[in-house]
Amino acid sequence: MNLWIRGHLLFALLFVSSSALTPEECEPLIKPLSMADPSVLHGRINLLFGYTDNDIFKAILNATHSSWNGTCSGAKTNLTIEGDTARGTGFHILPTCDGCVVFSVNSSANDSKKVLEAFGVENPSDSQELKAHSVYLLARETTVKDSDIERFKKQASCLGFHGEPDWTYSPDKGFCKEDVRPPN
């Protein structure tokens, strides 16, 4: 019996270690792209998948789709580009499919209470300090190929996220109509 358990444990460890990407395999997946041509950020892009390491961000993601309490919403953001980093929080754009954008984002806020009140979300933790690392796949279309999703999951794995995304766009929820614009 003991040998049987050891055999299964060894098999499980080998399987897990063989499915993890090596640093060499991760490097081209997570090396930030040059921001020399920021046009990839222009126009409408739809959030399709997201991972985050913060319970507050998970609560916000799970409370929204493309509308908030039935009202269409969006955002405009001014970013300062410094080398390969877009500053607003700390965005990096990672390699992805044509018509897609993958953001690796580091965010922080000292008083998450104000952020949560703005979104109408209860704080799922006791902390008021918000520090988060998130990875998002956005696209101009409402769907992407399965191979693009798998690549995104590999990128997320290289950045320390595992399993299924914390948030996935649900096509039955729909997106806001194209002519609905976010407030200035």
What's the short version?
The chain has 184 residues and is of the alpha+beta class. Helices cover 30% and strands 23% of the residues. The chain has helices at residues 2-19, 23-30, 55-63, 112-119, 146-158; strands at 46-52, 67-68, 71-72, 80-82, 85-87, 91-94, 100-109, 130-139, 167-168.
What does the model show?
The protein has 184 residues and is α+β, with helices and mostly antiparallel strands. The protein has a single domain, classed as Calycin beta-barrel core domain (Lipocalin). The protein has five helices and nine strands. The strands form three sheets. Strands 6-7-8-1-9 form a five-stranded antiparallel sheet, sandwiched between helices. Strands 2-3 form a two-stranded antiparallel ribbon. The longest helix has 18 residues, at 2-19.
End-to-end separation in angstroms reads 67 Å
Strand order of the largest sheet: 6-7-8-1-9
Number of distinct beta strands: 9
Number of helices: 5
Reported for the largest beta sheet, the result is:
5 strands, antiparallel
Radius of gyration: 19 Å
Query: What is the mean predicted local confidence, pLDDT?
Result: 76
Shape: globular
Proportion of β residues?
15-25%
Oligomer: single chain
Please report the first level of CATH classification, the CATH class. Answer: Mainly Beta
CATH architecture verdict: Beta Barrel
CATH-defined topology: Lipocalin
pLDDT below 50 for ≥5 consecutive residues: which ranges? 8-18
User: What is the share of helical residues?
Assistant: 25-40%
Q: What number of structural domains do the residues give?
A: 1
Structural class: alpha+beta
Order of helical and strand elements:
HHEHEEEEEEHEHE
CATH superfamily: Calycin beta-barrel core domain
GO cellular component, one term: extracellular region
Main location: secreted
InterPro entries: Calycin
Subcellular location: Secreted
